[in-house]
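Below is one such protein, fold included:
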Amino acid sequence: MTNFLTRVTFPSAPASTLLVRLGVGGVFLSEGVQKFLFPVALGVGRFTKIGFPIPTVTAPFVGLVEILCGLLLLLGLMTQPAAVPLIIDMLVAVTTTKIPIFVKSGFWTMAHETRTDYSMILGASFLLIVGSGSVSVDSWLNRKALKRDV
């Protein structure tokens, strides 16, 4: 258990990684909550309009993933595993909503509409690579596990 915990919570990233976690985690948490607050515009209604299968299931599922993983990023808890579903989430969002914009309106319109998606993919990818940083629950758990092993 300690080996896995050490690998996932290794605090090698700088404390400033907190800023990326707050930005990425905050956006995902907010977007997940809004899927429930505004279901017609951002939840089931939007998923229906885009053409997702079973939108009454997929929209709440995506909302819950965004809320849970966003919270994990904010806390710096299991940051690297939490980044994976968020990257997948954003890749699906770009594929289903931005590619049609590209086909209809061209590159620059798509580039403008994709700016947040692009930033979230890069931010979550950064956290997947470097981890949560030294100001995080991951780091605290790692220090606690290392003390137990001594």
About this structure: The chain has a mean pLDDT of 92.
